[in-house]
Amino acid sequence: MAHVSADARREQLIEAAVKVIAREGADGATTRKIADEAKAPLASLHYCFQNKENLLLAVFTQLSEEMPVDADLPEGENATLGRVIEQCLTRAMRWSVENPVRIRAMIEVTLWAERHDPELSVSFYDAFLKSSEAALRQVDVTLSDEELHSVVRVAMSMVDGLSLQMLTNGDKERTLRDTATACAMLKAFLGESERKTA
Question: What is the reported pTM?
């Protein structure tokens, strides 16, 4: 049997965990099932991650790094907050549509964390909030910090809800149409906010 480096084994186990979690839920994804899916000895899972909790955290970290939450910033007059949010939301939802197994695993791990370690689930969302806000702060934002936080949280809830609907009904085209509607709603709100503060 060929030797597998610890880094390569970690990647194999994370990928196996994504599949098992998506199929059986985070609670049903035992370390033995994950090791079997990876065709790896159970001892190697415990060597790489020590326990299931650390593996689930690694799964969430991997998936959150894959999900695009930033945008290629438009230039000139197109560099409005609404257009940047539209790009971010659209990219995130295209990723969700193209990666249903991965988004299901991400949702499962988030719900598992909320049940077992609520502070951990809060930290998951905080990481998304910070990276999303950093991208949005690159354009001229007329919103206060609290208003921007609220808009980002609403956009994140749209990603969560649209992703869950897509997983439930399997209609990827409708999900992308609904994403366009969500973007139009956010842009309309931001247009009203800009007029009120002008």
Answer: 0.84
